[in-house]
């Protein structure tokens, strides 16, 4: 009898913990909506490969993902030879997950994930910017990129285009852009 009540209490405690974790995860998923960003929908692996190919990663490249999710694109870019990768991600659980994945793949020395809004990201030194955000933030992202990123930086956007900017390349709904030279 004692064992049964012990098991019942243990099970109850476990379910409570699980539902607390699930609620925290779910509420964190809603935060991006208030920060003009999209919720976590990971890019599928086939598209990750496609985006890395389109980006033409070189060993000199410093790559950045604005809303890096579980870090899969950044890790793939490092595996493709990028020098350094940086992610901005607002969901603390995803930040921890990407740092853990980087450790597992022994790439942690070349990866930095900031748990902060990508609107605060410093774009001036990056060579490649990865995006997978909602159309409502694409206009503002375009303005930020054009203002801050260096000429010739490449942008690879999954799913949605940057408005009024003709892509250099388009494969389905993956778009490649290049920041133009600044006019004097
Ligand atoms: C569609 S997911 C893309 C994830 C990842 N880049 C990928 O392709 O697998 C968008 C991500 O952006 C994050 N996000 C949305 N708004 C953000 C903001 N303002 N600052 C930082 N991250 C944000 C979300 O938490 C989510 O993980």
From TrEMBL:
This is Methyltransferase domain-containing protein. The chain crosses the membrane at residues 6-27. GO terms for biological process: methylation. InterPro entries: FAM173A/B, SAM-dependent_MTases_sf. Keywords: Membrane, Methyltransferase, S-adenosyl-L-methionine, Transferase, Transmembrane, Transmembrane helix. The keyword Methyltransferase applies. The lineage of its organism: Bacteria, Candidatus Uhriibacteriota. It comes from Candidatus Uhrbacteria bacterium GW2011_GWF2_46_218. It comes from the Bacteria. It holds the Pfam family PrmA. One of its GO terms (molecular function) is protein-lysine N-methyltransferase activity.
């Amino acid at each position: 009898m004692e064992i049964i009540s012990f098991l019942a209490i243990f099970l109850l405690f476990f379910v409570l913990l699980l539902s607390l974790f699930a609620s925290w995860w779910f509420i964190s998923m809603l935060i991006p909506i208030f920060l003009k960003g999209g919720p976590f929908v990971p890019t599928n692996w086939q598209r990750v490969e496609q985006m890395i190919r389109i980006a033409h990663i070189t060993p000199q490249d410093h790559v950045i993902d604005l809303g890096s999710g579980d870090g899969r694109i950044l890790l793939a870019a490092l595996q493709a030879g990028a020098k350094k990768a940086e992610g901005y991600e607002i969901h603390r659980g995803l930040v921890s997950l990407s740092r853990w994945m980087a450790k597992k793949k022994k790439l942690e020395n070349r990866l930095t994930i900031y748990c902060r809004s990508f609107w605060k990201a410093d774009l001036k030194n990056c060579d490649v910017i990865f995006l997978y955000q909602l159309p409502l933030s694409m206009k503002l992202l375009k303005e930020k990129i054009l203002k801050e990123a260096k000429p010739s930086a490449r942008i690879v956007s999954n799913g949605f285009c940057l408005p009024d900017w003709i892509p250099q390349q388009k494969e389905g709904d993956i778009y490649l852009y290049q920041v133009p030279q600044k006019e004097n």
